[in-house]
């Protein structure tokens, strides 16, 4: 491999990125050294197994990835603003939409939600940690390393450019040569390990570690949605793992699973991809549904309407999610029977989803609605998500889909569900649980500005795209002609896109502003909450979460206790010693070896790949012989931490 | 409510702005029975969707307005946790809507599998459409002629497209005639289309196929039977024969101008049966795929762009075929 193939050169945008990456790295190293923070970083973060800290690291990474994916989006919108623009060339544009899609789904939406699940779910069920804290650290670090591996592609080796769906044979060596596509395969594979482990971890945590008295039908809705999500992850992610392995073999070892040569089956890739890919979009929407349920109930000061219907509808959606994948390629010519069946199953998803919408609306009915920022995001979700929902039903009608397929109509639809659903939920959830994590609220006034600018920008950006789609504008074109007449609506769309960008900047400013000036919480119950996490102190309950595990008597336990004026006070005689897991640096080291292995395989340097994998197995073996059963926190230390007067 | 006002005004403005362009949008302006059926289905579904949106928005506005937290708040009931009647209603209504949408959908799906109803006793014209990065090869087996990047079809007669691809998965789409279908190497998919009016319609590949995807387009010219027959016989006498050598060159990734031949490639290859033909042809011609940002690839790309420019110039000077 020559140098001009290793480093990406010749594009001022890339040189700019090179410089900023180096400067940021130097800045971080300088800061850590100057303020003697290395030990702090290692002890408090890199080796932690505390679900709350891992959750925060997930969220911070996700916000960074949102920035990266967002910059990609704005570059695309800039290129498309006017017809026949020369801002980006075709190859560069293709790389950018590929990384935008992959990063936003795999490295932004999922980690953001998993981060919030990490912080909140153990607290909601009254647990001291997750079932496998060590595994949780492995999950985070493999995700993080996978994301980093994927992200360096644009300066070293070149980014993948076959779309986030990476259809074969386009993604084969013959049509997409070079390391780009390998970055996609290895980055997703390594991050996918983490996701699968999270699925197992939280499934066990939710099933086995609930506080006494919390039966399944007393679980908060966010916990329920997480449980269902974990089940989907466990069934869906192995499919991705296998598909990625097969394509990796095609590209690195000359096998012919999906290739043009040797009777490869390109349609098999599309099927496997969407067999994972469709459940995947429910993985990123169900936790969002759960959060909205909590937030709407909290700020209507009312119990959730139709609790059981909410659960059953979610289970139905989870089941359906595995029965609809063909709707991503109705145009593959599978025949009338197949298309009819998958049309109907897809439309049927609208039924439980519609039920949920009405249940949210009637949660507010006879409530006292308070318009806090999380609540505004939730209302914005209902209003905008419905647009995505109904256009989804339109796309489900296969005969009509032949016309919508691969157009901006589709692009607009999935942004209406993924942004109005998932991204709105990420913002709402972040603001809602921010005081729990950091001990103060984000500024509400600035937050409302963010909401309005973002929501209006979102509609300005994506509403025109429905009409562009109906006017025949295909997705993934890097430019279009003047005569097509798509210019004006694209310009409108670009303006909307930049409004969303501005809103994101203000959101980040709000984090800084609130860090400096926000009033610190004293109670731990910033929003007059309903579920157990609000019964713990803020910021961040102590590492063991609950000095005394609560006994749950019903749904919205904490709220009911408050209403009855019977919030338990912790007494010194109730406290027993607490068993906690030890920190470990092994997950971080293991993930670093994964990075070495992944990087080697991306460039087809097998010596490096093998060396990395030996390292990975070495850490596994080390862990197997490590006799560390954790430690006990003494009664005195708990009393000291809880500041109980004897 | 006052706070929401600019939002509503804005929405209204957008709606007016966009609906005014509706009549011109190509998918809602079909020129054949296939596109017409799809348009009917789309408009039918838009009716239901509008109804759903109105119900949800009205209900949201009402509830949010009435139960907002304020002084003298009335009707607060914190333990109101469900109603069997209401919940039954909103399970049943979506089920009814789904059925109402499913029936015409399935009907249309089945109807689009064959030639259009009104011309089903006519023998369809068969055309093989083959996608090669980033051009379309059209073969008329019965007429024994072949074109590249343009199509002539007779009006009011069903056309049966047999789709395949020499390399990446493409999607054959002529929006004004009707919906698309994938063209895949080693596979043959069938698509019926028909034009009811004479004219030129834009067609394209709509499935991403890499660097040249944006210009992976073609023109469809619909004409009277007579004109079509005339074009066929002229082509057979005037156009050159397609040589295997020339065809292999077409297998290289890139754009070419419109071409016409008086013979077809079906004699030596059908990509539906031989998925790797193009890969072998590229090997024969010494073509090697290059890493996109490498120097070699950049040079190759520059060359390709120059050629494309030259073509465009020559096309604007003299039309290579009669429109």
UniProtKB/TrEMBL annotation, chain A:
Where the protein is mainly located, per its record? membrane
Q: Which UniProt keywords apply?
A: Cell membrane, Copper, Electron transport, Heme, Hydrogen ion transport, Ion transport, Iron, Membrane, Metal-binding, Oxidoreductase, Respiratory chain, Transmembrane, Transmembrane helix, Transport
Query: Which CDD domains does the entry link to?
Result: Ubiquinol_Oxidase_I
Name the SUPFAM superfamilies for this protein.
Cytochrome c oxidase subunit I-like
Reaction catalysed? Answer: 2 a quinol + O2 = 2 a quinone + 2 H2O
- Which GO MF term does the entry hold, naming one? oxidoreductase activity, acting on diphenols and related substances as donors, oxygen as acceptor
Q: Where in the cell is it found?
A: Cell membrane
Q: Where is the Cytochrome oxidase subunit I profile domain?
A: 36-553
Q: Which cofactor does it need?
A: ferriheme a; Cu cation
- How does it sit in the bilayer? Multi-pass membrane protein
* Annotated transmembrane regions: 12-33, 54-76, 96-121, 133-156, 183-207, 227-249, 269-289, 309-330, 336-355, 376-399, 414-434, 446-468, 488-512, 578-599
User: PROSITE patterns, from UniProt?
Assistant: COX1, COX1_CUB
List the GO terms this entry assigns under cellular component, sorted alphabetically.
Answer: plasma membrane; respiratory chain complex
User: Which pathway does the database say it acts in?
Assistant: Energy metabolism; oxidative phosphorylation
Q: What is its EC number?
A: 1.10.3.-
Q: How is the cofactor bound?
A: Heme A3. Binds a copper B center.
Tell me, which GO biological process terms does this entry list?
Answer: electron transport coupled proton transport; oxidative phosphorylation; respiratory electron transport chain
Physiological role: Catalyzes quinol oxidation with the concomitant reduction of oxygen to water.
Regarding protein family, the annotation reads: Belongs to the heme-copper respiratory oxidase family.
* Protein name as it appears in the record: Quinol oxidase subunit 1
Q: What organism is recorded for this protein? A: Fictibacillus aquaticus
From TrEMBL, chain B:
Q: Where in the cell is it found?
A: Cell membrane
Its catalytic activity? 2 a quinol + O2 = 2 a quinone + 2 H2O
Sorted UniProt keywords:
Cell membrane, Electron transport, Membrane, Oxidoreductase, Respiratory chain, Signal, Transmembrane, Transmembrane helix, Transport
* Residue ranges of the region described as Disordered: 284-323
One Pfam family, please name it: COX2
| GO cellular component terms, A-Z | plasma membrane
Give the enzyme's main class according to its UniProt record, as a single word.
oxidoreductase
Q: Which residues cross the membrane?
A: 41-65, 85-103
GO BP: ATP synthesis coupled electron transport
Domain Cytochrome oxidase subunit II transmembrane region profile: from-to ranges: 19-116
Q: How does the record say this protein sits in the membrane?
A: Multi-pass membrane protein
E.C. number(s) listed in UniProt: 1.10.3.-
Query: What family does the Swiss-Prot or TrEMBL record give for this protein?
Result: Belongs to the cytochrome c oxidase subunit 2 family.
What does the UniProt record say this protein does? Catalyzes quinol oxidation with the concomitant reduction of oxygen to water. Subunit II transfers the electrons from a quinol to the binuclear center of the catalytic subunit I.
The name this protein carries in UniProt is Quinol oxidase subunit 2
Q: What is the lineage of its organism?
A: Bacteria, Bacillati, Bacillota, Bacilli, Bacillales
Q: Which gene encodes it?
A: qoxA
